[in-house]
Amino acid sequence: MAERVFQASDDAAGLTPEAAFAVLGDETRLNVVRVLWSAGASHEYDDVDDTASTMPYSELRRRVGVEDNGRFNYHLSKLVPHFVRKTDDGYRLSGGGKRIARAVVAIAGAHDAELPGVVGTACPVCGGVVEASYEDQWLRFACTQCDGLFGDAAPNGTLLNAPFPAPGLAERTADDALATELYRCTSDLTDMMQGVCPECASAARGTLVVCDGHDPAPGEPCEACGTPFVAWGDLRCGTCQFAKRLPVELCVLALAPAIGFLYERGTNVLAPSLDDLFDLVQTRVRTTVTDDPRRAVTTIDGGDEVLTVRLDDYLTVVDVSR
Ligand SMILES: [Zn+2]
Ligand SMILES: [Zn+2]
Ligand SMILES: [Zn+2]
Question: Which one, out of 2, 31, 118, 140, has a CA that is 20 to 30 A from the CA of 49?
């Protein structure tokens, strides 16, 4: 029997990303979302009670501030059902409407920001001073004295670089922000390595990218790829374009066998310190690449035992052994 897959119901089918942008590309409609969100008019599936709170039409129109009934009706009708649900008692945000509201909250605040720059942790590569910077809503930690880890794939000195919502910076020191970003990166990576996009829940696809002429001198990056890592995991979502590109060593650390292996030995990979993570990647985790069939073979030295994980060209686990 053929496998059954989800089909959208008729009224909700076929809202393309372009159509969603078009629907939301209007101030009045975004104001409807804002007013319903501010008033808590939504179905709180994710809260403790399962009640829906709604707002009557007349109150919604008054709060949005549109006098013309016909014009308001027109805009409201564009939002139903994808972003706003109409019930017998009034209007509330849909799940999609709540996500829009949350996305707006997450992107509000500073675009670029001055951070209390220097991190308490020294650069794990060279012992130099590590500075935090925030630009274009990306939070970057970079060494002021060495080239960092990512070669040409990131600005010089980069040790960690990821998108970070501005509200998350509030009341955090640079060290707190670093711990938070490490946690978020690992969490995204565990999703992606399970084949799930953390942003949109579509299938995420992995590709193994190997430096063929990899030959780093001790303490120096390889001339061919500009990094110390022979193999990289390229993980991306074809639906929303969310992507991560990281050394295979880090991809393997996001897999359950490695998480468990290291946890038993005192390291929590899901919430690592920068020092722990670098110590792991630089001294205890090794990756080699075999041909025919091509595999990335990563070993993790646990002291008493070694864990070996083999990944194929699509970053799928082929086997795990101790
Ligand atoms: Zn450094
Ligand atoms: Zn190389
Ligand atoms: Zn996605």
Answer: 31
Ligand lying nearest the CA atom of residue 201: 3
Nearest ligand to the C-alpha atom of residue 238: 3
Amino acid, single-letter form, for residue 62: R
For the stretch 42-88, pLDDT in tens is 866 655 555 668 899 999 999 999 999 999 999 999 999 899 999 88
Please indicate, yes or no, whether residues 170 and 30 belong to a single structural domain of this protein. Answer: no
Q: What is the CATH number of the domain that holds 60?
A: 1.10.10.10
Judgement on whether residues 145 and 198 belong to the same structural domain of the protein? yes
Which ligand has the shortest distance to the CA of 123?
A: 1
- State the distance from the centre of ligand 2 to the C-alpha of 294, rounded, in angstroms: 17
Q: Are residues 89 and 223 in the same domain?
A: no
Query: Cα(126) to centroid of ligand 3, in Å?
Result: 36
Count the domains in the chain.
2
Q: Separation of 140 CA from ligand 1 center, angstroms?
A: 14
**Same-domain check for residues 137 and 197:** yes
Establish if 10 belongs to a structural domain: no
Q: What is the 3-state secondary structure (H, E, C) of 204-228?
A: EEEEEEECCCCCCCCCCCCCCCCCC
| CA 161 / ligand 3 centre spacing (Å) | 19
The reply to whether 177 and 75 lie within a common domain is: no
| Span 140-191, pLDDT tens digits | 999 999 888 776 667 888 888 888 888 888 888 888 888 999 999 999 999 9
